[in-house]
Design brief:
homodimer; alpha+beta; globular
């Protein structure tokens, strides 16, 4: 396909009649849906975030979009538009290109996001950069990492450890819709839960992309508080038996938030209606840093606290 | 530098106190400035859009941002925020990383844009994906490629051919601020001229990234009209003597627009005050396609009409 044919394919694949000006012009034009716009960018590269040699390419597109949307969930924002830049190896086949586009479209449509534009460039290796735009009614309706208060509970959505487990099951030829790999291939950004937590008065929120402990550290640092997490309380994914592994499992795309005790029961109930769960895993106190403790309150030592591409 | 140190460097480099929520959280939060949001994404890859081996890395960052902002200019939008995802080779040195960031910051600040977020990932080759967000007072204040009307004039800002000429002068060790290379290393997105052309009632507008003829073809196709361009009228850059070369010179980042005759004099005058020029190069008529004609009105044949990464 020529570049024009590829763009035509994408325009059809990502059809979006509600855009004021859609794909194919210099820029997309949208009507902002609220008083503040919430925007995030997430990029993935072959060999770093996925292995094209063993991944179905549909999953590469799906996950890149879902992971980016997870950042909107972590702000409590309502999803709006997404823009995808892609570096495509010249040897990428047409069916692979179409499956990549289909994965992007499927992830967007699963969350009600609009693919509003992007760019295609030739590249030595496959990479995607996904910009997601969301909306919130007002600046104080957005939940940052910096608002945790001593006395709040620490809560997580869903379960942990499933992503690390799924990663170990990926092998060449595996199907994009293999349910054992859903946590890796078709993660669900917790947009509804994020909106509920924001409306419930969550003090701070982040999505678990680098592992519970590492991301808890981000909240502790940004909020200038201490977080104590109880190992025995971590909600473990099916067939996951090691809570320490679950505490450092990255790419979970679950939400980690701090919440006043008084808001817990209602948040649990309404989040259950969105198809996931909310679990109390610890508490916020004065101080600094993250402590992981066992059932007796004794601190558990953990070596690897997160993931840094450049360390 | 660790990833955290790199992000800290960028946060300082792109300081933006007017953000509601700034760099370092899951997403940036901004107050939309008008009734519609205008967004575009542009990506560049080492070996395709620039050669790191012979380019000052400051110019890589500067040009990527300027080229992306040029798409906002082409819509007549006011500049807002930019988000930059970068794929960084592990061997990139700290001074090079800082110069790359400085180039991004310099281009943003030259246009009054705010660097509001982004993502850094490891990559086998250097690439940048720049998302630019602009604002317009209303949907009909935005100029697309699709509104050219028969009878309108075809106008361009600035001069043409300088970009192709500068490209031939790039060699290892050349300075980022070499004035002969400004058209390649530090192009000026025509944001003020774009806003003036939009306010003047331009029917269609595009920025010249793939060459005048190719981009004129985009307007003709999107507007369902014919464009006739007069070779002798093309405004040639200094030391450029070949108008045919100027007609296919890409990455000019000048604006190509169609404009009612009645709006020309005022647009010329106000654009002159922004430090560039406006030149009539042809006219719009019924029909299809782009014709390039000589002083006698005889069609000139051109082989190469644009640039397609995948053809």
């Amino acid at each position: 396909m020529s570049e024009r044919e590829r763009i035509k394919h994408l325009t059809e694949c990502f059809a979006a009649p509600q855009l004021v000006v859609g794909n194919g012009d210099d820029a997309a034009v949208v009507r902002p849906g609220g008083a503040v716009t919430v925007t995030s960018v997430d990029a993935v590269v072959d060999g770093i975030h996925f292995e094209l040699a063993s991944w179905p390419i549909h999953a590469v597109g799906y996950k890149a979009v879902a992971a980016a949307l997870s950042d909107l969930a972590a702000m409590g924002a309502a999803v709006g538009e997404i823009y995808v830049a892609a570096g495509l190896p010249r040897e990428l086949s047409e069916p692979d290109f179409e499956q990549l586009a289909r994965g992007i479209a499927d992830a967007a449509s699963a969350s009600g996001a609009l693919v509003a534009g992007g760019d295609l460039v030739a590249s030595g290796q496959l990479w995607l950069s996904v910009t997601v735009v969301g909306h919130a009614a007002a600046a104080d309706a957005v939940v940052t990492r910096g608002g945790a208060q001593p006395g709040e509970l620490v809560v997580v959505t869903g379960t942990l450890g499933g992503s690390a487990r799924a990663l170990g099951l990926i092998e060449p030829g595996v199907a994009a819709d293999d349910v054992r790999l859903a946590k890796q291939f078709t993660p669900t950004p917790r947009l509804a839960a994020g909106a509920i937590l924001a409306a419930s008065g969550a003090g701070a929120m982040i999505d678990i992309s680098d592992g519970l402990l590492g991301d808890a550290g981000q909240i502790a640092r940004a909020s200038d508080v201490a977080l104590t997490l109880e190992l025995a309380r971590l909600p473990l994914a099916a067939e996951v038996t090691d809570p320490l592994g679950a505490a450092v499992s990255g790419e979970e795309y679950e939400l980690l938030a701090t919440l006043p005790q008084s808001a817990l029961a209602e948040a649990e109930r309404t989040i259950a209606a969105t198809g996931t769960t909310l679990t109390v895993v610890g508490r916020v106190s004065g101080g600094a840093g993250v402590r992981l403790v066992d059932a007796e309150g004794v601190e558990v030592e953990v070596e690897r606290r997160g993931f840094d591409h450049f360390d």
